[in-house]
Amino acid sequence: MRSWFKSGAPWIWINASAVSISLLAVFGLLTLIAIRGLGFFWPGDVVAMDYKEKNGQTTHLIGEVWDTEQVKTEVLRANGFDMPQDKLFVTRHVLKVGNRDAYGVDFQLILQPHILKQEQPKDLLVVVRREWGNFYGYLQQVKENGQVVATGSATAWQEFEPRLQRAVALYDQIKHIEKSSIGVINAKQEKLRLQQRRYELNNVLTPDHQAELDAERSELTNERVVFEKQLTDLYNQIKRDSFTATIQDGRVIEIPFSKVVKAYQPNAMNVFSKSWMYLANVWEFISDEPREANTEGGIFPAIFGTVMMVLIMAVLVTPLGVIAAVYLREYAKQGAMTRIIRIAVNNLAGVPSIVYGVFGLGFFVYIVGGSIDSLLYPEAAPAPVFGTPGIMWASLTLAIMTLPVVIVATEEGLSRIPRSIREGSLALGATKFETLWRTVIPMASPAIMTGLILAVARAAGEVAPLMLVGVVKLAPSLPLDSVTPFIHLDRKFMHLGFHIYDVGFQSPNVEAARPLVYATSLLLVLVILFLNLAAIRIRNHLREKYRALEG
To answer: Does domain 47-121 fall into CATH 2.30.30?
Structure first.
């Protein structure tokens, strides 16, 4: 036994076991997130049941079985429920009844022993609305301008689908005019207002300038009137159709098609239809905007904001990190001061990210941004332009936070370049800068790229500093659009990490938002995994490219 321990074999087995347990934990976590997140998009069946309430009354319930758990019968008996004496546990379902505008809640707890009757009628309708969440009921009538055009579930459904497609197309036109056409006009009008204010501050507002500004305002006003007329016509058209449906308590609810995102009858759908809808739901989640306080809809603005912030950060951190590393390794005199600088760089890598957020808020936002506003945008006062949190300051803050990673990785790459290569280049007549630029840095590029991608992967998942320097719950406009100057670095933005925090812990409807937390987490994990795999691929490619030169 003693010789076995001396051989080191036990430590190898312990290390292998630790690695295996870590891998199992990671794959288990990813599997849980994937199952919980991807399962949310499958169009589940809707059940209709007769249920005995706690007071003994029988009610009719409609909804989706959202979750299932086992509950001790003694706990239920203590709360006044009539439970079987021969069972220690009973099944309790979380039923999503929807119709929040009618009931005030989205979910209801259902005990399996109290279900008197349960079925899945094929004519049950699920309506995804722009407000108040899902609607569940039995389709009754379709109306046009208040007049009934179809009655009965089967007949009304034939009229339902084309009218819904029409309403969705009109809604898309309305949003396009409001956000693009009128949004551009609003931006131009604000630009004119600031231009006039600039003239006034500089005491150069001449009658010619005023006439020019008034002419441009008049032209923009005329354009706005045209678009507003189009909007009025579209709003009148979209209000034309509506439908009525019966909910679980027998009430008849009328819903305008303008409030509907999509509708389907899941119990009448086959596997192929559900699979097609599943893919459509996944695409909607990736490409659409959030609704209902981020608890429904998609997360495209968060994806866009995350990617744009990371790209800006990469552009900022790469030259800074490489230049610093090259100076420390190739130019600085190796002594006490250089060692202190390296220790400081290594210590910066361990500083909590929220500290960088406080630094970014105080230095970048208030000092740098405030100075830019006072020098370049005095006409906008007292409203700040760059003196407020935005994507530019968020990217700079993360660049400072990840700078030590790039510096350390680049230094390690430079240290692995043989001295003979430098001497050979210098012997051929190249200057030191030419040697670094054409030989040393290209050979160290695998380490540089690895450090950069690792920095990007870390920055993509950071949340704490961003809460102080630019990220918001819901951004009305993307940092990149069709309004000049097209890239708006002063705007606030949405982020996947903050979206997870907001939906998971700040949502007014936590139960409904829980699957979105898993789905968004899975997407963030996939993004970071993709970045790490890209880092490995780039590193291996560059390593093979310069291996012959190293030899």
So the answer is: yes
